[in-house]
# Entry
Amino acid sequence: MDPRIPLVLASDLLAAREQMAFTLGFHIVLASLGIAFPTMMLIANYIGLRRRDPVALELAQRWSKVAAVTFAVGAVTGTVLSFEFGLLWPRFTGRFGDAFGVLFVIEGVFFFLEAIFMTIYIFGWKRLSGWKHFMTGIPVAICGIGGAFSVVAVNGWMNQPQGFTLGPGGKLTEVEPLKVIFNPAVPYEVPHMILAGYLVTSFLIAAVYAVGMLRGRRDRHHRLGLLIPLTVGCILAPIQFMVGDTAARSIAHDQPVKFAAMECVQETHTHVTEYIGGRCTSEGVKGGIGIPGFDSFLVGFSTDTKVTGLDSVPARDRPPVNTLLHWAFDFMAGVGSLLILLGIWFGIAWWRRRDIPGTKWFLRGVVLAAALVLMTLEAGWIVTEVGRQPWIVYEHMRTDEAVTGASGIWVTFGLVVLLYALLGTAAILVLRAMSRRWRESARDDLDVPYGPRGEVFASAPTEVERR
Amino acid sequence: MSRADAVAAVLWIGVTLYAVFGGADFGAGLWSLLARGGEDSARARELIDRSIGPVWEANHVWLIFVLVVLWTAFSGAFEAIFSTLFIPLCLAALGIVLRGAGFAFHAVAGRAGGRRAAAAVFGIASLFTPFFMGTVVGAIASGRVPPGNAVGDPVSSWLNGVSLFTGALFLATSGYLAAIFLTSEARRDGDGGLERYFTARALAAAIVAGATALIGILAFRSDADYVYDRLTSQALPFVVVSAVCGLVVLAMLWRRTIRGTRVLAVVAVVMVVWGWGVAQFPYLLPETLTISDGAGTNTTLTEILIVFGAALLLVIPSLAFLYTLTQRRILEES
# Structure
């Protein structure tokens, strides 16, 4: 850092980074639900309409109400992030908004359509007829994915910036939109995040019903509520593992310093040992489990592959806190493997007895998986964002050049933490209250979807009764 | 009209739609806050919930639209505004978070205490965003936001007569629009009591908004001469139309004629927004940054126009669908 910049400013940079990390880390959970929750409710809705299954319809309706709450909170925490583009990083947006901004304009359109159709779907349960109502939910699911594409493509561009020309004084003189939108990081970052959204949502919903079953509520409502998301999650987990593996290999190629920090490779060499866990020091990993040559093998399918080390760039161009990065990366790979094991367990039980594994340990595993998946989501963003440091736009703009000249970021950071703690607590309390209310009302008056027509479904035999 | 001017017009359309629809939603929060005690108040709050419940999120997206178009097309102005006006924009964002969360939670909270707390948060926070957005507009219009990273004064840029009056004007206008819209809603419900309830509030808000506008013009005269000079010349027709519409609405409310007030009230507000735009033209930041100097590359401007065109084709029919379903009372809480 420039020694002339006063200490106050330097500390505001740290505050700005912490605030950005915190608000993004909070929003990404809600964004994940925004990406995938609509698909979950549509699957339940489809099953309900197709099989005339009132239980599935009830699930779809309740999920849509939960999605409505998380969507509202996500809308406001997302707005905070757009404010922060100016409040915290005005130099970044001021110089490069011209290049990456249009992706956000596209995202705005997706978000708009998502908000409109989400409302129609949520408020349409009573008066719209079955399939018509189902159709109004489809744009929501599509726009969730489209919005995720646009936003993550911007992050991809920050990692692999291209498609612009800088004139004298650092002003943008030319932009090539297609190169910006389809930057080299998009093919692995975008699917990785969309799948992460689906995994987080799947396992979170599944865990809610797993907890219910562990408490003895083993009715069809809970079984189906567990089965739908768990099936989606277990199918996607191995795909996500492969996408993640591709992403890591691409990063080794595209951002070798980030990769070196993730794996704590100090010097460029071949036959690099892959370490699991351990502490990253300037002499390499201390205390981890080493697999000789495996890191080289992962990068280039041969132990002879040369892996770029941190020594390839001066110290000021290397990411900070390498141990955190290394752990976050290992954590992702580790949880990815565990999810696949859980899926195999589930798959075998289903193949043999058309049922979820009978033991309570499986349900406990699902609950644990939800917690781990959430932590993995955060770990993934730590790897992406911290790993890109000290750059905000890789090799074009340093984070300390981008930060606001306004002071008092520690104050706003403190208030934001307080505010979000309240927001998160309130959201959880509200969701729990909704669930309690549904449980209590389940016995007497059923709030049937699609008005009087619901009675037809109620008299139709359910899957369980047929068997 | 240059490409940059066209994009500035697109930006202004977004600003207008946010001022009208977003403003009305915040204004509804104001009336919800003030509806305390009595049987009418409970029904008023219910009507407010039903009216803004299905639309507030879609209306909020106009703000996102304005932000992203501003930072994409006029990134230098965005940088200047968001760094100098750090404090009021933080407070506006605080209002957005608390309003949205409060509204989303107040209907579904577990206990009566929680519902009341969330409703109070929704009401109070609804005052924040219009007021502080108003101070931001006042700061920009009075030329207190120079280009660059936090070059302007962090406090006096928005804590001054023009800004405070603009903030008050935004708040009053939001309440005015909301009361007018809610009067029509009550009328469609055939609820004569609520119709009178909101007519009275619309009248009060109209008078406050009008008075604030008059004092505000004096503040502009002493402190924001560039914009004031043009408000009284090129932009004068807008000001006059706005004033006439406002007065007609006032007279109609007085005589309890509701039909047509909505359109006229909207026109009055739209004219103020466009009057401001015309008065600022050709500046993004009066007298320091023009639209053409602040605009991004031509490719980006074209892109924005294309995306905006596509957005119109997709969003307008969808919004029309949503509003129609809402107006026909097809959408309801299940």
About this structure: The beta strands of chain B are 283-285, 289-290. The mean pLDDT of chain B is 91.
